[in-house]
Amino acid sequence: MKKYLFISFFILSVFTSTAQNNDWKIEANNTTNYVGTPVANGGIGILPWSEPFSIRHIILNHVFDSDGPRGISRVLRGINPFLLTLELDGEQITKDNIKDWKQVVDMKEATHNTSFTGLNKAEISYSICALRNMPYAGLIRVNVKALDNLSLKVIQTMEVPDEYGKPTSVFKTMQDGTSRQLVFQTSAPSAQGAQHVSASSSFLCPDSTYTIQANKKDNNMYVEKQLKKGETATFALVAVICSTRDFSDPYGESERQVVYAKHEGTQRLISSHRCLWNELWEGDIVIEGDKEAQRDVRFALYNLYSFCRAGSRLSISPMGLSAQGYNGHIFWDTEIWMFPPMLLLNGEIAESMINYRTDRLDAARKKAYIHGYKGAMFPWESDDSGNEATPSWALTGPFEHHITADVAIACWAYYSITKDKKWLIEKGYPLMKEAADFWVSRAEKNEDGTYSICNVVGANEYADGVTDNAFTNGSAIRALQDATKAAAICGEKAPRAWSEVYKSLRIHSFDDGTTREHKDYQGIMIKQADANLLGYPLGIISDPTTLRKDLAYYADKIDPENGPAMSYSVFCVQYARLGEAEKAYEMYKKSFQPNQRPPFGVIAETATSQNPYFATGAGGLLQAVINGFGGIQITDKGIIQLPSVLPPHWKKLIIKGVGPDRRTFIKEQK
Questions:
Q1: What is the model's pTM?
Q2: What is the average per-residue pLDDT within 198-212?
Q3: With bands split at pLDDT 50, 70 and 90, how would you rate the model's confidence at 417?
Q4: Active site residues
Q5: Measured between alpha carbons, how far is residue 178 from residues 79, 217, 410 in Å?
Q6: Do residues 276 and 365 share a domain?
Q7: How far does the signal peptide extend, from start to end residue (predicted)?
Q8: Which of 6, 197, 348, 582 has CA 20 to 30 A from 354's CA?
């Protein structure tokens, strides 16, 4: 525990000393222990870094190939077309010849902005964004102000990651009347042949004073301009990455989109990007009285908005579009942690996330069949096919059967807010029915007439092959109850077995009434909150005495070094609703602050890991604020606001754009 406290203090002190903020911007002027933060648009993720014009990698959403011969699926890094090298009078700009370096993440406009003085010859700034209006495109805008007469040259290259086969590059000059455009394209098959990926790029310059040329010998493209003292060069690079996952002709498509971007022009592209982000920010959280909390909470929301998009029918993996962590697969992280805040603040994104599951119901049916169960059994790790994608060495994953209940619960939550009966009849209830049938076939009847679920791994992954795991049984109860209600709305008769099982599933307790994590649990360390999830989000335990016992008992059982970020967020929700402001705020801070990394405060999965950005943790943080301090609750009848308390120093919490009616909920300090 002492080691954990030291690490937490160190991380927090570095973060707070290197970043400044206002309500919408996070500023960094120090690269110590630097961890980058992505810009994304739900289609691609771009990860800028600290060195001038550095882009670490591109992540392609739900574009998978095997990680080796007979390997498992892994989301692909994209061919990286955003690599720029800037030269002044023939000398390259590097981290060693710049000064006054600064980076700013502008959450309002979803841009990553860098500025510095290079070689004492020019003031240089550039802005990177993943265009919200073009889900496969990114834009880099560059400004160079000459401090003396100079020659400017900017070279663009493409990087092909090692998970690809042999690349091919071409340069094409597109001519349309008097309009001429040079397009640089690099394409390659993924190493195991599942995908072909093509990246195309072009410089966007305001006038003919810029010279744009292809350098076929060195496989790059460059733009040049002569600048007089005090003159500013302004231009942009647009690039598009397409794959056979989304297009039958990714080569032509990437070119066509670049040509489209050229005809739109930089200003129209950015204007549309800003307009769409303004629409996203209609769902927002405003905290009065704590600027640091305002930044942290909005940054979490900004990242979830970045990692998914309306109409995509895709969901969010634990690391979003920041990295290849967890191979880009979809887990329970979506339905339990990230989906609820999106459902409240952006129903169209939530619709895409739930469509991801309904689209893959057939694969879940097959998984149940091959394991000897009825209904549908969702995979612990899902790739684009919807099949089980957990590595075979990760033996606990395929036994985390609560995922099937988690998905069904999310379906009911979606209907409870939207009241979309057509969707429920056609999409939601068929999935919920299959999930309910799975749980009936999965549960085993005891001699006393109760039911047990045996040989599972719950949310606490340290407990392997247990009987009557609290969260697994609790989520199964909730899924069966929700399916029964959905059946009535759809004019169907729920099987009697559903109610028989959910009324009789065992939830074990210690002698003093504290909820027991599983039948044989004896108080050892756990990986993350499990039994406490019965209080929130499941709502199966509501008695304040039991809630307090459970919270007190399990608080020091969670692994302080390797436990993921979300546990304390559910503690925060429950303490806030119990009226314990100091305790709720303590848990709020523990839910993410030890996991923040400098200089922007990106969230890692654990207090000791270096694998940001952990989108699951962002979902937990948002629930701590929305559902805890804000008291927002999704019920069968819609959205209500429960009694809750704010941290003592917060003056007001405003949650905007909630639900289909875009309501505003306010909680003020008493």
A1: 0.95
A2: 96
A3: very high
A4: 461, 605
A5: 31, 28, 54
A6: no
A7: 1-19
A8: 197
